[in-house]
Input
Amino acid sequence: MGRRRAKGRDVNGILLLDKPSGITSNDALQQVKRLYFARKAGHTGSLDPLASGVLPICMGEATKVSAFLLDADKRYRVRCQLGVRTATGDAEGETVETRAVDSYSRAQLESVLEQFRGSIEQIPPMYSALKHQGQRLYKLARQGVEVERQPRPVEIYALLLTAQGDDWIEIDVHCSKGTYVRTLVEDIGEKLGCGAHVCALRRTGVGPYDEAGLVTIATLEELKQSDLAEMDRLLLPIESALTQWPGVELSSDAAFYLQQGQPVLVPRAPTSGWVRLYERDHTFLGMGEILDDGRVAPRRLMKGA
Output
């Protein structure tokens, strides 16, 4: 028997979804996929149910570049509740400890935050999707099981104190992939001597994308009633996710051989790393990688380019 063809439209592009708080990233993805009646779609790195904000949804051929956004740096706006530690590190977990909160000066807070800028190590939280012997940590945590986790290096590019109250602070974080904001907040709370957890979290940026042009599920539901074409116009081109890599223009001959799966020599191409591939007419072909001998090898090619 032949493979059953997946239902849905061939929709290609990237939707910058403003994920609402209170639902999982997968719930948000499935709602968008259903509204677009898209055959294929994937998101680019989970946000906790508590969190809102930038969640790029890759549809169709754009799923081939989702890993690049998964690996991209992220930006967050975080409200930290001081004096209370929870089981999950955020407001969804039960309280496990309360402590008195001192009256911190701006200078004291800045002194603590400075310790978390640059290269740091984090111990991943038990309430995370990492696996231990094939089981998700959060499933073990729900059973009351705690296992040893190895520290992981992450990069905090920027950490800014934007507001403070008697028992809370607000921070903006710009960090590398793999950073656990809940862990960062808990560690800051320990350095302050009072403990802390995340009470509100919004992702404000992923790689080249920020909050400009975010689309809500409510907007999509409204458009779905009347104008599917207008919904499609909300999609960003696939190459918009890849602006940090250099572009390489190929001759028609080179483009032909590359699309047959063959590495090609391109004059004045970069000497290493990933590159965006274009034909002379500016058609985006996909992503390539520079080989040791200087040729460009096809890696993530777009169908029908």
About this structure: Residues 76 and 203 are 4 Å apart (CA to CA). The chain has a mean pLDDT of 91.
